[in-house]
Design a protein that fits this description.
Elements lengths: L1 E6 L3 H12 L8 E6 L11 E4 L2 E4 L5 E2 L3 H8 L7 E3 L7 E5 L1 E4 L4 H7 L4 H8 L9 H6 L2 H9 L1 H16 L8 H4 L1 H10 L2 H14 L11 E4 L4 H8 L5 E3 L4 E6 L2 H4 L8 E5 L6 E3 L1 E4 L3 H8 L4 H8 L6 E8 L12 E3 L10 E3 L1 H4 L9 E8 L11 H16 L7 E7 L10 H12 L5 E3 L9 H19 L11
Parallel strand pairs: 1-2, 1-14, 2-10, 7-16, 14-20
Antiparallel strand pairs: 3-4, 5-9, 6-9, 7-8, 11-12, 12-13, 15-18, 15-19, 16-17, 17-18
Helix pairs in contact: 1-11, 1-18, 6-7, 9-10, 13-14, 14-17
The chain binds flavin-adenine dinucleotide (FAD).
The site of flavin-adenine dinucleotide (FAD) has 37 residues, from α1, α13, β15 and α18.
């Protein structure tokens, strides 16, 4: 019997367990799979709070349904039937630029929105004629530099930088475009232009409806929130999940320990408290980058050192609920991004009760605001009351909202979203090379190859499959494989 231990029961670790379990029969002698989770509940950042008729996502609320591997995994569980598409309102997005302005997809309507001035618009329209850069240059560029080169300074400042705040809670000038938005780099590489590439992608999507969601995907969630996906996965057959079990470290089992006639296990997993050490033939570290670093430091010091360099600043989510009368203060839409230059601490706000049914009681309004990130980490030092007050005040100023909230929920993620900085691509290469020397150790989670909920899931699926195949005797399987 081989033993696979997975560290972390976020979406990545649970998908890894689910996929490894699917390949159990390929492992001679059988495969036992154990997921260890430090906290009392599964889901990691996917944490749904239900109270007094409100359903609040304190982490991810929805994802783009564009990963067929994740879809296929969900289809094998009962939870797939609970998937819900966002209402049409989700297609309308706003930017604060003096006042609220809708970011229109139609070029003429966008031009009229006033977000970008006439010179900025002309520069954006020139994008198809800007020569493509060599791959090396694009690989070394920040998101902001890439956007400035292709679209001009105004678009980089007014459109792209707020978008980066919305996805990474990060600074577009410090994050790597090839690590954060590989699809943009691929559009330039393959089509010589983002605009030409997007037009080609749209045509291809219309021709080739291989999966209904298409490459850009529909925005989806689940009737009972995203944590319910993790709960459903944790309840599936083929593996065991143990909560309140923090992995302190993973040790290599030395030859002397093993005795002459013993093959695997290779690792011993030490769990906090009085729990006995757990033997493992392979380990998948599916925690956050910094947590994976601590767990694997003994067996893979180079991997740990590189993982520790990945900054993970805080994000605070403040959810406020208002009586139905407040609905008229918010336009129809997904939410608003707030560029730093506008002078607010809120990075963006999402209008949840417009997106999915069942998020608020009887027509009440549920709004979430995000703060912090690498651009304002100090905000996480405020206590919950001060955070609610700050968000109330800023929402009142932005939306002219006079209503008093009747509900609030605050979640202060002290270390929330990994920042893929300019060193990230070379760091990932170093980690992958170092993993070659630690057979039986696999890395999942969102630390390396994408922070979207569905991307973390796919990373887990691939690592789960690789670990199972490795245990089944496929010798060439190592590394992190995106
Ligand atoms: C506020 C916020 C909003 C977000 N919004 C969105 C969104 O709308 N859409 C989207 O697509 N993405 C969103 N994301 C990103 C997305 O939620 C995450 O990237 C994804 O959920 C990460 O999943 P994961 O399994 O890799 O890691 P996590 O969810 O972080 O799970 C890691 C788990 O490992 C456990 N762990 C760590 N160390 C140990 C140890 N030593 N022993 C045992 N267990 C351990 C942790 O307790 C945790 O449960 C958001 C993230 C945040 C923070």
């Amino acid at each position: 019997m081989k033993h696979l231990v997975i560290i972390g029961a976020g979406i990545s670790g649970l998908c890894a367990a689910h996929e490894a379990a699917r390949h159990r029969s390929e492992v001679a002698g059988g495969l036992d799979i154990l997921v260890l989770e430090a906290s009392p509940a599964v889901g990691g950042k996917a944490r749904t709070v239900k109270r007094d008729g409100w359903l609040v996502e304190t982490g991810p609320a929805a994802y783009l349904d564009n990963e067929p591997e994740f879809d296929e995994l969900l289809a094998r569980t009962g939870i797939a039937g609970e998937k819900v598409e966002a209402n049409e309102a989700a297609a309308r997005r706003y930017l604060l630029h003096g006042r609220l302005r809708e970011v229109k997809a139609n070029p003429l309507a966008f031009a009229r929105s006033g977000i970008v001035g006439p010179m900025g618009l002309l520069r954006m329209m020139a994008e198809p004629f800007i020569r493509r850069a060599g791959l090396e240059r694009a690989a070394a560029e920040s998101v902001w530099d890439f956007a400035r080169r292709r679209l001009g300074v105004e678009a980089a400042d007014k459109l792209i930088a707020p978008m980066v705040l919305g996805v990474f809670a990060g600074d577009a000038r410090r994050l790597s475009v090839s690590a954060c938005f590989p699809r943009l780099v691929a559009l330039e590489r393959d089509h010589g232009s983002l605009i030409r590439g997007m037009i080609a992608a749209r045509k291809k999507r219309a021709r080739d409806q291989r999966f209904s969601s298409g490459p850009s995907g529909k925005l989806v969630s689940f009737r009972r929130g995203l944590q319910s996906v993790a709960v459903a996965l944790a309840e599936s057959d083929g593996f065991t999940v143990r909560c309140d079990a923090k992995v302190e470290t993973v040790e290599a089992v030395t030859a002397a320990d093993e005795g002459a006639d013993r093959g695997p296990p290779r690792y011993r997993v030490l769990v906090g408290g009085d729990a006995a050490p757990i033997e493992a033939s392979a380990v998948i570290a599916a925690g956050e980058a910094f947590a994976n670093a601590d767990a694997v430091a003994d067996i893979a010091p180079e991997v740990a050192a590189a993982l520790r360099q990945i900054a993970t600043p805080p994000v605070v989510v403040v959810a406020l609920g208002y009586r139905p009368q407040a609905a008229s203060s918010f336009p129809t839409g997904f939410g608003v991004l707030i560029p730093r230059a506008q002078g607010y601490r809120i990075l963006g706000s999402i209008w949840d009760s417009q997106l999915f049914a069942g998020r608020s009681p009887d027509g009440h309004v549920l709004v979430r605001a995000m703060l912090g990130g690498s651009v304002d980490p100090d905000v996480a030092a405020l206590d919950d009351d001060a955070l609610v007050e700050l968000v109330r005040d800023e929402l009142a100023r932005i939306f002219g909202l006079t209503s008093v909230p009747v509900f609030s929920e605050v979640k202060n993620w002290r270390r929330a979203i990994p920042q893929y900085d300019l060193e990230h691509p070379s760091r990932v290469a170093r980690i992958e090379a170092a993993l070659e020397h630690t057979p039986g150790l696999f890395l999942a989670g969102n630390g390396l190859h994408g922070v979207a909920f569905s991307k973390s899931a796919v990373t887990g699926i691939r690592q789960g499959r690789r670990a199972a195949l490795w245990l089944a005797g496929a010798p060439s399987v190592t590394g992190t494989d995106p």
